[in-house]
Write a sequence for this structure.
C-alpha cells in the first residue's frame, strides 16, 4: 500500500492538500434527491479543481443530513468521478459488524481501485435511542469500549490474515485478498487504507500507537484539536502504512463574494445545530427563517460560540483563516465542510476557495 495514498500534494498556494467533507445536507424545501445531486456536482468539481479526497459521513435520524449510508453514496460518486480519492469520514464502527464493513469497502475498492479510504469512528453518529435500534442492543457503551477489538477484527478481515485456530480463520471478506490466492485468482490484493477519526484523545492515541493516519473533527470540537494532534504525534509508532504521522482536520468553511451573505448562510446552519442540540433535528433552515428567528440568550451564546469556529467571509478572508489555522495546528491536510441551506451556495463556496488558492482548473 503506497504512502502517497495517504499523503496528498498541496495545489496552488494552499498550505496543505485540500479535501472535502460532505454531510449531504438537505435544506428546507429540498429533497434527499436534491442533496445527492449536489454531492455528484460537488465531487466532480472537487476532482477537476485538485482537491485530494472527498469523504462522506455517517449520521442517522437527522432529517437535514442524508448521509446515512456512506458505502451506497460512495458507490454512486465512484460512478461519476475517475481520479479523486473517495472515503468515509467516517463509518461508525460500533454500529456495524466488522465483516460487513470489510465487504462493503472491498466492493468499493473493486469499483474504484486504489482510490478508496476507510475512515472509522467510534461514536454512534446519532442519539442513544437510534444507536440502540441500529445495534439492536441497549448496552451502548459496549460498542465504544470494544472499539480497539472491533478495529483489529476489521483489519484482519481486510487483510484476510486471521491466524490458524481463530474462529474466523475460514471466513473471508469478498471482494478481497482471498480471491488473489484462489486457483486462477487475479484479484488485486490491495485494500483501502484505514483512518481513525476522533474528536478527543482516545482515537488520537490509538491511531498513533497503530501507525495509522488520523482525522480530527475540528469543525465541532475545536478546543480539543491541538491537544489531540499533540497526543497523536507523541503516540505515533511507524507502521507498514506510515513512516511518520499524518493528520488532517475537518474545518467548517464557507466563502461568498459578499461577507454579509456569508454571515446569513452560517447563521442558518447554526440555527440547524441549535435545533439538533436541543432535540429538535430538522431540515437546514433558509437564511430568511434564521434572520426572523427569535434566539434566546442561551441560544445566542451557542450561536456565537459555534460560528467562532466557522471560517467564513470573502474568499480572501477564508484563505487567511485557513492559513492561520494550519499554522496553529500543523495539520497535514485541511478537509473543508461547507454547511448551508442551498446546494448552489455550497458548490460556489468551494469554487471560490479553489480560485483564491489558484488550484487547477482541470
Amino acid at each position: 500500500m503506497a504512502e502517497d495514498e495517504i499523503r496528498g500534494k498541496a495545489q496552488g498556494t494552499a498550505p496543505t492538500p485540500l479535501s472535502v467533507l460532505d454531510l449531504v445536507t438537505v435544506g428546507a424545501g429540498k429533497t434527499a434527491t436534491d442533496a445527492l445531486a449536489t454531492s455528484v456536482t460537488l465531487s466532480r468539481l472537487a476532482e477537476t479543481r485538485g482537491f485530494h479526497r472527498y469523504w462522506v459521513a455517517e449520521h442517522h435520524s437527522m432529517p437535514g443530513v442524508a448521509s446515512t449510508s456512506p458505502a451506497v453514496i460512495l458507490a454512486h460518486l465512484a460512478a461519476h468521478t475517475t481520479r479523486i480519492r473517495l472515503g468515509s469520514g467516517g463509518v461508525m464502527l460500533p454500529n456495524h459488524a466488522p465483516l460487513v464493513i470489510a465487504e462493503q469497502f472491498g466492493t468499493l475498492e473493486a469499483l474504484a481501485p486504489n482510490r478508496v479510504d476507510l475512515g472509522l469512528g467510534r461514536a454512534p453518529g446519532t442519539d442513544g435511542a437510534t444507536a440502540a435500534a441500529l445495534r439492536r442492543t441497549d448496552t451502548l457503551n459496549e460498542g465504544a469500549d470494544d472499539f480497539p477489538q472491533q478495529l483489529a477484527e476489521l483489519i484482519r478481515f481486510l487483510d484476510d490474515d486471521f491466524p490458524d485456530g481463530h474462529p474466523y480463520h475460514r471466513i473471508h471478506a469478498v471482494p478481497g485478498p482471498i480471491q488473489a490466492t484462489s486457483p486462477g485468482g487475479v484479484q488485486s490484493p490491495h485494500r483501502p487504507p484505514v483512518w481513525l477519526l476522533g474528536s478527543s484523545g482516545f482515537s488520537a492515541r490509538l491511531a498513533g500507537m497503530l501507525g495509522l493516519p488520523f482525522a480530527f473533527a475540528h469543525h465541532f470540537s475545536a478546543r480539543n484539536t491541538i491537544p489531540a494532534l499533540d497526543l497523536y504525534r507523541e503516540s505515533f509508532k511507524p507502521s507498514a502504512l506510515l513512516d511518520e504521522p499524518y493528520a488532517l482536520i475537518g474545518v467548517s468553511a464557507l466563502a461568498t463574494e459578499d461577507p454579509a451573505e456569508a454571515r446569513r448562510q452560517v447563521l442558518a446552519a447554526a440555527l440547524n445545530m441549535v435545533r439538533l442540540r436541543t432535540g429538535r433535528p430538522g431540515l437546514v433552515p433558509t437564511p430568511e427563517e434564521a434572520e426572523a428567528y427569535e434566539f434566546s440568550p442561551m441560544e445566542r451564546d451557542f450561536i456565537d460560540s459555534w460560528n467562532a469556529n466557522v471560517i467564513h467571509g470573502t474568499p480572501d478572508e477564508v484563505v487567511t483563516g485557513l492559513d492561520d489555522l494550519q499554522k496553529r495546528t500543523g495539520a497535514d491536510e485541511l478537509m473543508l465542510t461547507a454547511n448551508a441551506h442551498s446546494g448552489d451556495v455550497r458548490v460556489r463556496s468551494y469554487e471560490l476557495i479553489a480560485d483564491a488558492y489558484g488550484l487547477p482548473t482541470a
Remarks:
- The beta strands are 18-22, 53-56, 85-88, 91-92, 116-121, 194-198, 214-216, 247-255, 310-313, 333-337.
